[in-house]
Amino acid sequence: MPWPLAKAQLNPAPSTAIDQRLSMNHYKFLHLFNIFNPSNAAPMSSEEIGDTTRLLPDSSESSTSQRSRWLFARLSAALLWGGFVTAIDESFVLAQNGQIASQFSQFRNSSLLIIVYAIVNTVSNPLLGKLAQKQAKSQVVIASALLFGLGNVLCSISGRWPLIVTSRGIVGLGGAGLGLMATILWSDTQSLADLAIWHSYSVVAETLGWVAGGPTGELLTDASSWRVMFAVQASCTVPVLALVLFPPRCTWPGRLEPTKSADLVPDRGTGRSSFDVVGAFLCVFVFLPPIIALSLGGEHLPWRHPVIISLLSVTVPAVAAFVLWELRTTCEPIIPVRLIFGINLSRPFICLLLLMISHNSVLFLLPLYAQVEYFGFARSHGIVVSVFMMSMTLGAVIGARFVKRYGPNLPLVVTLSLLAICSWVLSQGLTAPNHWLFLPTVGFVGLLAGTPPNCLLVCVIRFSPPQDRAVVISMFQVFEAFGGVLAITITSTSLRLLTMAELRQRIGTDPASEKMFKHFLEDVDYLGSVPSDMREAMQAAYGVAARKCCLIALTSCIAAVLSAAILPRLQLYPENLRSGDDLQAEVASDSETDHIDT
């Protein structure tokens, strides 16, 4: 049966076209989560299985629609709350890692709490994407919430430094699953035109978590202990489990069965029955060494240290071995290499990597610059981060509307071009900032930065086959994280080297000055112990170095504009356009292939 005819039979007399489309999306969402009660389902014959006319239960349409919308709201709330809680955790640890590490006499290694979380979060994304493709998505959400809660409980009771660092890795694994599943489920249940809007809701939830996490954690830490904050975060996973585990108290008189359309269920007829264990190991080995090397190099270990050299030297052979194995394996591949490196997906992924380098470079520089330039003004760096994140959230919400109306190409090119101009303005004005114009500039940069990720997500999902959509989305998040690691590594190293060069040129190269420079670069509060004229010279040198580092963001942003200009042009005007609509969808009832209207 052709898809339009089947959809017409599902809702023979809908009140509006919008209700009809929402109803279809909710039923697809229900199937993807598999949380209806199968014990109430009536048995079906082999001829009925896969028939699109069996999508709806055999109850009245009004009550069914009401229940499906209520369940959709519950699941959406669970995913948004999960994103909010994971952002609270990241914000709290970012603000309190020094105090936590000090209690274990590990202040020099305090950043390990952040690095381990980021490494596990990045490396686990492709594996979780493959797991979500093979298993029920509700099970992945439940397992992720349990891991996140377990990791926070272990952090709360840890009495040794290695244990709390390991616990942060468990938290990172759970946080990766919660964030990934939200994006996957938005892509599976929403049209491409609405995908950017729903993704912007996730950005809003995460930003609220980032804003609330630091201050809330500081209040609880001052009132009792940082362990209490970890315990509170563990308890915050209970609403996620409750919303996903317990279905609404209603019976389904009929059976909710999916079609065998390619945009509803994964394609399991590839002849590859076994999971690619070797590919999973190689996948971890591809991402783990370079991320560890980039995270530890320069700050914890010198770049010439044998550990850093060894980690970087094995990266290229590991990538080559992984690609060759994934191309030749007879098992289910972890990452569809031919698809990721194909002409349609490689271009948005390259643009995303360049965008993340530019975005994170600016986000790394601005708070540090404010902390040094406005030394003595309490929480200046926190104000800069808050203004940037809140503006980016607003930009994501506004930009999603433009994406829905004009498609992703035009908003992407325009915002990237404006970001390049802003990077140039910052590179010219950081040494002698206009105080009343600094925060508005930060806010405008954040406003522009919220739109490009939504645009690129729509492009990536549009050109990914439905059976590989979960893995492609996981790779999208890997590129985001890896771009952030590259940006912070390159920017921090460049900032340190350039600042040292400026300080030596302005102040001197004697041993006493060198010692003073190292103290300044390790602890900005050292500025309070030096004479005023020396402090002004240090601030000026740091400003010059920060201005030069802004050229990293400018260069990367210009390259992102050029890569965005050659992306395939997409139009999202059809209301029912879904990801992968250019692929053939099989209708099991008549064994014919049909192209969904685009």
Describe the protein.
The structure is a single chain. The protein folds into three domains: 21-34 and 58-247, Growth Hormone, Chain: A (Up-down Bundle); 276-331; 338-566, Growth Hormone, Chain: A. Strands 1-2 form a two-stranded antiparallel ribbon. Helix content is 71%, strand content 1%. Helix 7 (192-223) packs antiparallel against helix 8 (226-235), helix 10 (277-296) runs antiparallel to helix 11 and helix 16 runs antiparallel to helix 17. 45% of the residues are buried. It is mainly alpha-helical and 598 residues long.
Could you give a quick summary of the protein structure above?
The chain crosses the membrane at residues 71-88, 108-128, 140-159, 165-186, 225-246, 277-296, 308-327, 348-370, 382-403, 410-430, 436-463, 470-490. With 598 residues, the chain is mainly α.
